[in-house]
Specification:
Length: 381
């Protein structure tokens, strides 16, 4: 499970733009024209130029809101030239640019350490009416039973002064950040817990691995059983919903991951195959054999974790509260199609090596070992 924790930490770095480089953000894609909000808001976004940030900016812009971005100016500084930018760095306590201003809401998608959230809220108290903190389902800890909702206990840590973000501390620190935001803005805080954020522009390649691998063709190693549940959210769906949360002043804690109804790894891979002209052939290999071959869930096999033991609920976290608050999900086939199209447009250097998933050489080795087992029939799709 340490691999899963590491990848969840990586997802947060991606949303905040800590993973930089020429392809850390996808160029804005055409989107259906959105009706303007009946009540335009003044929105402060902390960050705004990484992965999730631009999705929020684009959705808010389409709805006619006035935006201010606060960041260091180092990640994709060319983006959004017509939007006001304030320079600073919460890591070094450079927050003066925020003083003396007024906004209707602030969206904090770069908070990892409770102290930094407290320092930010100290500056913004009295300046904003709603504090939206982007947390993570990792705040629930590692023991996940099916159907966990927002009332479930959160992860804790013995020493709450620890500030080093690791696979072990990431979840408890996120939970402490949630609490810090709520204490500073009681009754005016929205804590949003995404799971795996995917889609065009994802610099971690966690979901991207699958449509790209299927498109490469040949025999594809598929993990576990086709019915194993998985959960994720398209970054564009999350960005649009966050803007609606601000417009409707939706408060409280929400699990923002989908789809609305249970999705299996088999259905997800079928969607990837449907978007590809090559459509590699799937060979399903059970979790026990993968473990014997040291093929890691979530790392070598992105998105997927065996639904057993402490991870029985990993793909079955309750999202009904967010759905009731207006969260909607595009079809997984659309996410797979758009992700593959984005990938094909990347420079050759970027496409030379996926940042997640098993290597082609190692995949071939594992498949060869699987087929060598006389007691294991070939299960393909």
């Amino acid at each position: 499970m340490s691999t899963r924790r590491d990848f969840l930490k990586l997802s947060a770095a991606a949303s905040c733009g800590l993973l930089t480089g020429p392809t850390a953000f996808a160029a804005p894609q055409s989107a259906p024209a959105a009706a303007k909000s009946a009540e335009p808001r003044r929105i402060l976004i902390l960050g705004g130029t990484g992965f999730l940030g631009p999705a929020i900016v684009e959705a808010a812009t389409r709805r006619g809101h006035t935006l201010t971005l606060f960041n260091r100016g180092k990640t994709n500084p060319h983006l959004f030239p017509d939007i006001e930018k304030l320079r600073g760095d919460r890591a070094t306590r450079e927050l003066d640019a925020l003083r003396g201003r007024q906004w209707d809401a602030v969206c904090d998608d770069c908070g990892y350490i409770p102290r930094q959230v407290r320092e930010m809220t100290d500056v913004l108290r009295g300046s904003v009416k709603q504090y939206i903190f982007i947390s993570s389902v990792s705040a629930l800890g590692d023991k996940l039973r099916p159907g966990l909702d927002e009332t479930a206990p959160v992860a804790t840590m013995a020493d709450e002064t620890v500030e080093k973000v690791t696979g072990e501390t990431y979840g408890p620190l996120k939970a402490l950040c949630e609490q810090a935001a709520e204490r500073a803005f009681p009754g005016a805080t929205t804590n949003i817990r995404p799971g795996l954020i995917v889609g065009p522009g994802d610099p971690t390649d966690r979901f991207t691995y699958w449509p790209v691998r299927v498109d490469r063709g040949g025999e594809v190693l598929a993990p576990g059983e086709p019915g194993d549940p998985v959960q994720m959210i398209d970054v564009r769906d999350l960005g649009e919903w966050i803007v609606r949360v601000i417009e409707n002043r939706t408060l409280g804690v929400y699990h923002a991951l989908g789809p609305e109804k249970e999705l299996s790894i088999g259905a997800m891979l079928a969607a990837c195959r449907a978007t590809s002209k090559t459509a590699g052939e799937l060979t399903w290999v059970n979790a026990e054999f993968l473990e014997s071959q040291r093929v890691t869930p979530w790392g070598d096999m992105p998105v997927w974790v065996p639904p057993t033991g402490d991870s029985a609920g990993f793909g079955r976290i309750a999202n009904g509260r967010a759905v009731a608050a207006g969260l909607r999900f595009r079809p997984i086939a659309d996410t797979a199609r758009d992700t593959l199209a984005w990938w094909r447009d990347q420079p050759e250097e970027r496409r030379s090596k996926l940042r997640a998933g098993i290597s082609a050489e190692r995949e071939a080795e594992v498949l060869k070992a699987w087929h060598a087992r006389t007691s294991s029939p070939r299960r393909k799709a």
